[in-house]
Structure formats: structure tokens, C-alpha cells
Amino acid sequence: DQQVKQNSPSLSVQEGRISILNCDYTNSMFDYFLWYKKYPAEGPTFLISISSIKDKNEDGRFTVFLNKSAKHLSLHIVPSQPGDSAVYFCAAGLQGAQKLVFGQGTRLTINP
Amino acid sequence: ETGVTQSPTHLIKTRGQQVTLRCSSQSGHNTVSWYQQALGQGPQFIFQYYREEENGRGNFPPRFSGLQFPNYSSELNVNALELDDSALYLCASSQPGYNEQFFGPGTRLTVL
């Protein structure tokens, strides 16, 4: 039972353009969502989060959008830079619960 | 501020053996969670420790056990290793009241 899904295993974007990574979830009880970036041989690095009471959160080049009715969130990176090439995971959780539920990840490649 | 550290980096064991993985939480964080990441998958929650007690567990058998010490560091123990236990084991620390979890670099376990 995959409660959090990232349906695109990979994405290739030109440097300077917008990268859009997508994530869908099935459990309507999730009330906060996070995005992590992972380089090879490193642990996931926290990027940005959003509470279910919001529909947008922005931090520099990174913006997360949440559409609760569609159970969908997306991460926008503008402008994309070569250092953004990594695997991106979305994760979801419940306030007061312990675990994060992760998607399978999307490998983003930024081309010069 | 010291981030989450894990040891060892890599480990090779044979089926049936036992293994102990270690984690030191980020300064100021008193909650530690453990995740298993199989190749090509997102991290899966094993369990969480808070105040030296298990505080939530994922769908893992009892041969996966843990400890948390007064300094908030933690151990993950796996008994009777199976081939499918080969994975990256990630430790994450967090503060009470905050949703974000911060990950260490992981321990790569190979079971032969």
C-alpha cells in the first residue's frame, strides 16, 4: 500500500529553467508534507515543508504547492542550477505521529 | 552545531549474523527515528525513540530492535540477518513539536 507516490522516476531540465517535481498521496489524514534532496552517499537533506492548512510555501528558489482536494503536491525550483541534480523525495506525516511516509523518489538532472 | 552522525559507514555481514548500527543525534534533538532504504525505494520507517523509550514502530519484525541512551544517541540492532536486510539504514533526529526530521549519512549494510 503505497500511500505516497512519485510517479516520475526521472526528470531532465535545462539549467535556468523551472523544475517541477510531483507527488500524490492517498491518506487524507496527512497534515504536513516535506521535500528532501539526496545526493549519492549522503543522507536526505531537508528542503522545505508545508502544513495542510496552507496551499503554498516558498523558500528562496524552492516553492511547494499543496492541492488537498487532489491529494497532490509539487515542488518548483526556479531557476534550476547544476547543483540541484539529485534524487528528490516527498514525505508525508501526521501531527503527533512518529513516522514519515516517503515516496519512491524522482531523479532530477539539470543539463547545462 | 553538529549534525546527525552514523557509524559505521559500510558493513558486510553474512546471513544469520547480528549487527548493531549507531547514531548520534543533532545537538538539541531528543528524538531519533530509524529508516531502511532499499535500492530504488524511499526510506521506510522502522521505529522512533523518545526519552529512551520506543515511541512508534513501522511494519518490521521484532528482530529489529533499538535503544536510546541518556545523551539521545541511539542503536539499531538486527538479529538473524536475512539477505533482504541489505539496505541503507538512515537515522534521523528531531525536536519535539517540530515535524522536520534531519538525517545522517546512513550505514550501508550488505548481507551475503
Walkthrough of the structure:
The complex is a heterodimer of chains A (112) and B (112). Chain A is mostly beta strands. Chain A has no helices and eleven strands. Chain A has strands at residues 4-5, 10-14, 19-25, 32-38, 45-51, 56-59, 62-67, 72-77, 86-93, 100-102, 106-111. Chain A is globular, with a radius of gyration of 13 Å. Chain B has strands at 5-7, 10-13, 19-24, 31-37, 44-50, 53-57, 64-68, 74-78, 87-94, 102-103, 107-111. Chain B is globular, with a radius of gyration of 13 Å. The model of chain B has no long low-confidence stretch (mean pLDDT 94). Chain A binds chain B through residues 4, 6, 32, 34, 36, 41-46, 49, 89, 91, 93, 95, 97-105, and chain B through 4, 6, 33, 35, 40-45, 47-48, 55-56, 58, 90, 92, 99-106.
Give a short overview.
The complex is a heterodimer of chains A (112) and B (112). With 112 residues, chain A is mainly β.
Identify the notable features of this structure and list them briefly.
heterodimer; A: 112 residues; mainly beta; 5-stranded antiparallel sheet; 0% helix; 54% strand; B: 112 residues; 7-stranded mixed sheet; 4-stranded antiparallel sheet; 11 strands; globular
Q: Percent of residues of chain B in beta strands?
A: over 45%
Q: Main sheet of chain B, how many strands, which sense, barrel?
A: 7 strands, mixed
Helicity of chain B, as a percent range: under 10%
Structural class of chain A: mainly beta
Beta strand % of chain A: over 45%
- Secondary-structure element order of chain A, as H and E? EEEEEEEEEEE
Query: Separation of termini of chain B?
Result: 37 Å
Instruction: Tell me the greatest interface.
Output: A-B, 25 and 25 residues
